[in-house]
Amino acid sequence: MLGPTADVLSLLYAAVALYTLWQLPGRWRALFDADYTADDRNLANRMGFLLLTPLGVLAHELAHYGAAYLFGAQRLSLSFRVYWGFVSYQQGRLGPLDDWLVAVAGPAASLLLGLLALVAALRARQARRDVLLGLAHATLLLVLVFYPLMSAIERAGDFVTIYGRAPNGLHWVAGAVHALGLAAYAYAVKFLGREARQEAHAEWDARFADRVVVLCPEALTRLASLEQEGRFRRLTPDERQELAQLGELRAWSAEHNRGVSSARAEADPPRANGAPSRPDAARGSIDAAPVVSDAAPVRPDVGSDR
Question: What is the pLDDT of residues 10-35, one digit of tens each?
Fold first, then answer.
């Protein structure tokens, strides 16, 4: 049992969960409408992390309980404390292998639940996807990273048994599964990031179809400043995020403009003397509009045809 540390964390999580529940009635309809904002995404993530995680905790403890029951443990009891819990029992007929399998059952259930939530998130859209991602991130980070660390620090919990009391070298098997779980999670995070960028690019392309995009001077100046400062000092997390967003926007605009130029060249091939077959469209510009990415504070400007 992890005791006081877990109880304190549970109280903090519960306070934020109550605030999330208080927000839901007034924002439920907006959460699932066509205008999906950064605030909507934040609420959806909190729903997955704070409101669904207790179900994952219960599944974890029920897996322990079921395994102990199947192996013949005596005086079984389950304590569920919303964001953590534990199963206690007398070993009875349980041998070292049985006891090890009981310890493994909980993390195995959490790992399976987290991966299933991650796969389901790949098929979902907008709010539902972010709710499932909130659950997946919370479950997988806990079982793959934080819970093992807490077990090592406090010398209590499932991973003390899994790695410290494993019979017949089974800790190597557990370590291999643990490493594969971390690799799968890292790959999924990378894949989701790439998919999110592709969706954002497609949305930006549709929004600025057939128009050459020019980033506003403020964005270009800020990007150059962050790139220069990054050579001489360590950027803060917010600065690194801003740099990544601006760099992504610059890369997209270059790719978008090449596509626009190619489409125009195919639609309006030059005459033999090099002149276009029809006059250029009227020049003009569109007022700066917010970038589709909710997190980016950048405003692209659409320049004249050229």
Answer: 888 889 899 989 988 888 888 888 77
